[in-house]
Amino acid sequence: MEKTVQIITSWLREQVEQARVNGLIVGVSGGLDSAVVANLIKRAFPNDSLGVIMPLKSNPIDIKDAEKVVQACKINHMTIDLTETHQIMYKEIQNQIKAEQAWNEERDRIADANLRARLRMSTLYTIATNYNYLVVGTDNAAEWFTGYFTKYGDGGVDLQPIVDLTKKEVRELAAYLHVPTEVIEKNPSADLWAGQTDEKEMGTTYDYIDAYISGQPIPEKDRKVIERMHEQTEHKRNIATQLRLK
Fold it and tell me: Residue-wise over 169-193: b if at least 16 C-beta within 10 A, else e?
């Protein structure tokens, strides 16, 4: 674990130096992955790292856990409540589409959730510009492979330091970094809507995804789910499809 931490923190310092910026920023959700990244950027830049908590229809427990994380690792932090901003923006979009009689009720929940992720991304970049920081992502190997992130939302970042680590490895790293126990043990959730959990939404488990990308055998049903997710989300791993005319 110590070697992994050293490799990641050294890489983070190199990226900051190459980009000629001052430090790093991460959104802290109260979940496992962002807790690990908050600890890592704090180690890489003790005085130039920032954790941002962004409540938005959030589970109060997650906000409390996020506060525990930033306090435990002693990272500089701030809280930006995006609830009202989201309500105004989404309502205006909704009203205009309804005026065209084109509103798709079946897509409402995912559109709402993705806007929340993208508002958080915009908030991080606005703050990052002020401090001359890079925005650090929190996607692990399982999420990256399956595309379980919002394009230009939580996937809209400058650096992805834990993208090669399985969920199990992230959890082990969290224990080594002394992330609060309740954060390590909680069910993974993107906090997209009430009662939402990652595994329930994906239709498989992180254990199976970790096993699959590690080359281990898993049940056929889960293999099909994972491969379908990977194929359908290829566009997320390629920032923009480019037409080459020359």
Answer: bbbbbbeebebbeebbebebbbbbe
